[in-house]
Amino acid sequence: MRSPIELIKGWPGKPAHPPLTDASIGAYTVGVAMLVLGALGVEEEQMAHGALLAIGGGLALALPTALTGLLDRLDIPKGTPARTTATVHLLVMLSATVVFALAFVAHLDGYDDGQVETIALVVGLAAETLLTAGGYIGGTIVFVYGVRVLKRPGVPVSTALVPGRAEADPGGELQQGGESAPPERPPPR
Length: 189
Fold this sequence. Notes:
single chain, 189 residues, mainly alpha, two-stranded antiparallel sheet, 7 helices, 65% helix
C-alpha cells in the first residue's frame, strides 16, 4: 500500500508535478496574454477580467505544484548536479509565484474598472519571464538528468498507461500475454 506522501508524489513514470506545472503555467500565461491584449485595446474590459481570473487560477495551483515539486526534489541525492538544478528551479519558480501574486494585487483595481493597469502588465511580464526561465530549468531536470523518468521502451502500452504497473516491470520485458520481449538491437553506426 502506498503512503499518503507517495500518493501525492504520483508513481514512477507518472509523477504528479508535471501535469500541475502544465496547468499553472497555462493559467499564468493566459493571464499575461490577456493583459497584453487588453493593453493593446483588444476587448480591454473582458481581457482585464479574464487576466485576473487566469492569474488567480495559477496562484490557486501554486501550492500543490510547489509541494509535489519539493517532494520530488527531496528524493534527488544531495550534492548532485540534478539536486543543484532542482534547487535553482525551486527558487526561480517560487520567485515567479511571488511576482505573479504581486501582478494579481496590482491588477485588482483594473479588474474592478475593466482596464489593464500598466503596473500589472509590467509585473505580469516580469513574472512570465521568471516562469519561462524556471520552466526551462525544470525541463533540464527531466530531459537531461532523467529525474522521475522510467525509460522502459519494452513495456507494452497497456502496462505503460496504468500508474505503477510499468514500475513492476523494471526490464520492460513483459508483453501483453506475459511473454518476454525480444532483446533490443543496438542502433546502427
